[in-house]
Amino acid sequence: MHDHHTQLTGGYRRADGLPVPTLRNARTVEGHLVDVHIADGRVTDVVAARGAPVSAGDLDLTGYLLLTAPAEPHAHLDKALSFDEIRPPMGDLGAAIAAWEAHTPQLTVDDIARRARRAALRALSNGTTALRSHVNLLRGDDPLRGVRALVRVRAELADVMDIQLVALVPHGVGDDAVHAALDLGVDLVGGHPHQTPDPAGNLRRLLGLAEERGVGVDMHTDERLDPTMLTLEQLAHAVRDWPASMPVTAGHCVSLGTAAPDVVARVTAAVAAAGIGVVTLPITNLYLQGRDHPAATPRGLTAVRALLDAGVTLAGGADNVRDPYNPMGRSDALETAMLLVTAAHMTPVEAYRAVTGSAREVMSLPPAGPEAGAQADLLAIRATGLEDAIAAAPPDRFVLHRGRLVASGRSERSTIAGLVE
Q: Are 268 and 310 in contact (CB under 8 A)?
């Protein structure tokens, strides 16, 4: 992807963010050709394309499909792109955790920030204009190295994308470190109770810290193929009366995908009643889960259809990108959407909503997209329709954040003379 940039510290670059008053000749998902007018970061009007000349500053989107820009509801910028320096063994969740823990003593704030910038800008160039990242509180004398790095990156990229941070609190890291992370600007409390000796007690501890500070939570929840591990249900009952100002998100929820139908119905009803947003993470959980099931290998996803049918806000995320937890990944929401279609049997419309509108809802962000009144976070991609965009993920893209052009990309292809696709 090629992007329009000015220099940013550390050799990284950010977009000029020039405002675009009108998008001309764009195609909607419904197949209409439209002109989209933008002012003060919002879409003011969407009208039938008139074929008027493209004025200076406007963007001609002839041949492009206009979509809501993706949001990434579950990333790990502190770990991203570390695979090549760690060279971990391929394996399950336990092996990934061991590889990462062995590497963490070598991490510096600058190292983490360097990789995190690259990962965030890669996502931006692919169309993601909002991103929520978990950041590990590290064991040892300086548990806030990752926090300081990601707070720095968030500030540096604030004019091109919205970044939220979640303190990922391992078992054994004390409350003082959590408070210090929140004091540094982390937005939410998180953790992985199912990985601790006392899942219920650990969950109560983390929720208590969030309540003390009046912030929301985003929990790694039941990332196991174990139908008896259902801290999701405990979470739902514990936060049922929390105010909207303290949003609650549960990521992974893999165990729910293995539970019996009556249990799934009971848990999804509780989740819906509590207003919890759920994030399913196909690429990492398809990689990590099920390695000890050589026959009829489970998919490692949550109960997607049951959650949707219960009215739960279900988002899709990429999770890990090229680190010990997942050696693959393109930082492209269209990759996530494709996996939701193929592995979770969602429709293309459902899958794309999971990485756009539903992801923004989980992140408590205002609605965005090519509709009057919505925030002008938009992705224009050279595709004939939504299915084509998800299937082919063309690199020809324009990315707008609050009505400003923040990234663009184009491809060039050639074949032997006379051969035409």
A: yes
Please tell me the predicted confidence (pLDDT) of residue 52. Answer: 80
Whether the per-residue pLDDT at 162 is higher than 60: the answer is yes
Residue 15 clears pLDDT 70, i.e. is over it: no
End-to-end CA distance of the chain: 22
Two tokens, residue 129: 């204009």
Rounded CA-CA distance 93/288 in Å is 6
Mean pLDDT of 318-344: 97
| Chain position carrying tokens 């929301």 | 216
71-362 has the same fold as 5-69+369-409 = no
Does this model's pTM top 0.85? My answer is yes
A 10 A CB-CB count for 56 gives: 5
Domains of the chain by residue range? 5-69+369-409, 71-362
Distance separating alpha carbons of residues 133 and 100, to the nearest angstrom: 17
Region 356-366 average pLDDT = 98
pLDDT band at 413 (very low <50, low <70, confident <90, very high): confident
* pLDDT reported for residue 324: 93
What pairing do the DSSP bridges indicate for beta strands 314-316 and 59-60?
unpaired
Q: Is the pLDDT of residue 411 over 90?
A: no
- Collapsing DSSP to helix, strand or coil, 211 comes out as helix
Phi, psi of 211 (to 5 degrees): -65, -40
What is 5-69+369-409's CATH number, 2.60.120.260, 3.40.718.10, 2.30.40.10, 2.40.340.10? Answer: 2.30.40.10
For 12, the token pair is: 């990284």
CB neighbourhood size of 94 (10 A): 11
Q: What CA dihedral angle connects 402, 404, 406 and 409, to 10 degrees? A: 110
What does the block give as tokens for 372? 């009057």
Task: Answer for the pair 115, 81: CB distance below 8 angstroms, yes or no.
Answer: yes
For 421, the 3-state DSSP assignment is coil
Provide the pairing of β-strand 188-191 with 162-169.
parallel
Q: Is 363 exposed, middle or buried (0-12, 13-18, 19+ CB in 10 A)?
A: buried
Cβ atoms of 6 and 16 within 8 Å: the answer is: yes
For residue 70, pLDDT over 80 is answered with yes
Averaged over 149-159, what is the pLDDT?
98
Cα distances from 254 to residues 229, 247, 316, in angstroms, run 9, 21, 13
Q: Does domain 71-362 have CATH number 3.20.20.140?
A: yes
H or E segment and range at residue 413? none
CA separation for the pair 70, 317 (Å, rounded): 10
